[in-house]
């Protein structure tokens, strides 16, 4: 395998032998989806988590040195909001999360089906497969979909960069 494939394989802890399966599992995250989720999760960048920890996707951690304590977290809960050095680090973590965590297997499988059918991968086509992203479930999905549509973020889905998975 070329060095760049080995690097991706190691980063994503891929143990298979099929390059195609690796590339499908680390495929793009539609820009419309990422921008909409970041806007919702960070209050358009104004949340305490975004300001203090570059946390624009509301990712959880259980490691005290890596997180920010939510002010109104229930006493029985142990999670923190993951903080990052940069917004780029936050975005890379979000993409890796969607491309590896078991909770988003349905997202990856449906993205693969869309890709294999030669259809356009878009935030609208995949948003319903992120039902596990928020405790708000359907309400969250509806909010993300509305954000994409109301702001014409779907226009971004035809723009891809070559470095999104690195």
Q: Which descriptors would you attach to this protein?
A:
166 residues, mainly alpha, three-stranded antiparallel sheet, 4% strand, globular, disordered C terminus
The major sheet is characterized as: 3 strands, antiparallel
Number of strands: 3
In terms of per-residue confidence, which ranges show pLDDT below 50 for 5 or more consecutive residues? Answer: 161-166
**What proportion of the residues is helical, as a percent range?**
40-55%
Our count of helices gives 8
**How much strand content do the residues show?**
under 5%
Mean pLDDT over the full residue set: 91
Order of helices and strands: HHHHEEEHHHH
Specify the overall morphology. Answer: globular
Lay out the secondary structure.
Blueprint lengths: L2 H9 L7 H7 L5 H12 L5 H6 L6 E2 L5 E2 L11 E3 L4 H14 L4 H12 L6 H4 L10 H14 L16
Antiparallel strand pairs: 1-3, 2-3
Helix pairs in contact: 3-8
């Amino acid at each position: 395998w070329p060095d760049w494939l080995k690097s991706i394989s190691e980063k994503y802890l891929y143990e298979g032998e099929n390059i195609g399966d690796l590339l499908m599992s680390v495929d793009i995250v539609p820009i419309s989806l990422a921008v909409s989720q970041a806007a919702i999760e960070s209050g358009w960048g104004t949340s305490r988590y975004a300001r203090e920890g570059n946390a624009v996707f509301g990712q959880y951690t259980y490691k005290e040195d890596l997180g920010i304590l939510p002010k109104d977290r229930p006493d029985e809960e142990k999670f923190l909001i993951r903080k990052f050095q940069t917004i780029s680090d936050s975005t890379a973590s979000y993409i890796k999360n969607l491309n590896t965590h078991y909770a988003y297997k349905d997202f990856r499988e449906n993205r693969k089906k869309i890709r294999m059918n030669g259809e356009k991968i878009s935030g609208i086509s995949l948003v319903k497969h992120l039902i596990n992203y928020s405790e708000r479930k359907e309400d969250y999905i509806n909010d993300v979909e509305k954000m994409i549509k109301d702001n014409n973020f779907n226009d971004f889905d035809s723009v891809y960069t070559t470095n999104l998975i690195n």
